[in-house]
Amino acid sequence: AGMRQTSVRSLHVPSEPDSSYFLRVDSGERGLGFGFELLLTDGQNAWRGDVSEAAVCGEAEELEMPTERYIQDLQQVLTGAENSTNYSFSLTPSPPDSSSAVTLAYEKVQRDISFRLGSVLLNAVPEPAEAVRQLLVHGLRRGNALERHNHKLEEENQRLSQEHQRITAELKHYADDKEALETELYSRFVLVLNEKKAKIRSLQQRITSLQEARSSEKQKHQDSAKSDHSEGQEQDEYGGSTDEEPGDVQETAAPTSLPPDAPAASPLDDSLKDITDVAPCRKRRFRHTPAPQPEVKKPTPQRSQKKR
Questions:
Q1: 36: closest CA among 64, 78, 70?
Q2: What is the pLDDT of residues 13-67, one digit of tens each?
Q3: How much is the pTM?
Q4: Which residues form the XRCC4 coiled-coil domain (predicted)?
Q5: CB-based contacts of 63: which residues, under 8 Å, 6+ apart?
Q6: Could you give the CA distance from residue 161 to residue 164 in angstroms, rounded to a whole number?
Q7: 114: which DSSP letter?
Q8: Class of residue 262 by CB neighbours under 10 A (exposed 0-12, middle 13-18, buried 19+)
């Protein structure tokens, strides 16, 4: 046979406010759904009855409730909290006769509406003292078991408290080590950072000095180029002013090729060889070819003869 489950609770009957009853519920290992036994006593008298598995299923069908849901309500009403206002009990007759059977009904109260979950017929026990003794023995055993369980829980709680203190101390130690390590790393980081900053400043200063030197050199080249350019312009203007004459304006349009009998270049031409402009050179060449001019005047006698 499987191990039986036993529970004891006190209950109050509204029709008997001055009376106290104790209800013992014994069920199989599989729970109340497979049947259970009840023992009701007021300390002097006792009544006993049982509920079969078929009766449990019949009550569930009559209430049109799923069997699992009905068993949950049955568990709550027979073994649940004693001060619950969701369930109530009634005895018939009330008060019961010590030598006659009584009917114990249990109801569920929901939104000020109560409906009966079930009832059981309890027969009077011929020897109520034995039933009360068994009830007391069960209470003592249950109390001893709870005390042992409570002692184990206290030991476990003490062990966990010590473990908690040890872990807290370790965490504090780790936190201190972490702060010390962070401080050391931060100091090292500051040193490295300052070195990098100094290196960056040095490189920036070097770059600035190189840029300034480059800019200065570039400015010198620009000034030198401007000076050379201005000197070249002055030489060109000088050559143009000395070479050009009022009578030579028409001669500049003449062909650039020199006649075969042109005289040799003068020393002035040799001193102006560095001038890159071509136009003043042509003018100088035409300026030194006055020899053909007498040949232009030769037709004058012919014109005079014709007039004659």
A1: 78
A2: 888 888 889 999 999 888 888 999 999 998 889 999 999 999 999 999 998 999 9
A3: 0.52
A4: 127-203
A5: 70, 115, 117
A6: 5
A7: E
A8: middle
Domain 5-125 -> CATH class: mainly beta
- Cβ contact 252:282 at 8 Å: yes
User: Cβ contacts of residue 84 below 8 Å, gap of 6+?
Assistant: 76
Q: Which amino acid is at 225?
A: A
* Percentage of residues in the chain having pLDDT higher than 70: 74
Triad 85, 89, 91: Cα angle to 5°: 160
Domain boundaries defined on the chain: 5-125, 127-191
Q: Which two tokens stand for residue 163?
A: 């473990």
Please enumerate in sequence order all residues whose Cβ is within 8 A of that of 116, keeping only pairs 6 or more positions apart, or say none: 105, 106, 107
CA distance 23 to 9: 5
What average pLDDT does the chain have? 79
